Amino acid sequence: AIAFLLTGWELPAPVVECFSVISAGTVPMSMLVVGASLGSVSIKESLGNWWVYVVSVVRLIIGPLAVWAVLRPFIHDEMFLGVVVILAACPTAMLATALTIRCGKDEAFASECVFVSTVLSAVTLPLMIYLLLYPGRAGWQGCCAGRGIAHCKFQQPRPCAAAVCIIPARK
Fold first, then answer.
1. Cα Rg for the chain, rounded, in angstroms?
2. CB 75, CB 15: distance < 8 Å
3. Do 152 and 145 meet the contact criterion of CB atoms below 8 Å apart?
4. What pLDDT is recorded for position 120?
5. Is the pTM of this model over 0.85?
6. How far apart are CA 27 and CA 13, in angstroms?
């Protein structure tokens, strides 16, 4: 890939088309793998496993807060910091199940973690966004501070719902 980048060469169109078709099937295939793994586990059993909740809390709440706390002194671009925190707040990826299958580990537990963290992220992801949008209500100052319009160091005001204003301002 580096040779193609440096020399300006391009792959032939049929090869590019082949890779495009393969890449388009990646997400549906991973969803099938997770679905097949979940098919052997009852939902009641998944929701009753407290270790799944521990993993989900670490992944969805503690992880993003730790990312924010560690990176805030080093990242001065508020937009970049907010994007990194939101990405850290996303649920466990389906890749976790694929890797556990490949390594011969407990694929049912990995599938349960993907399932439960995805369901819980319907609550935790908006919560993280809310903390970034309206930090004044949470006890710290940010770009919106509950005003409805945020300036966020841009030349013109932006509404808080805009993606450009999900980042807390530095004190």
1. 21
2. no
3. no
4. 92
5. no
6. 23
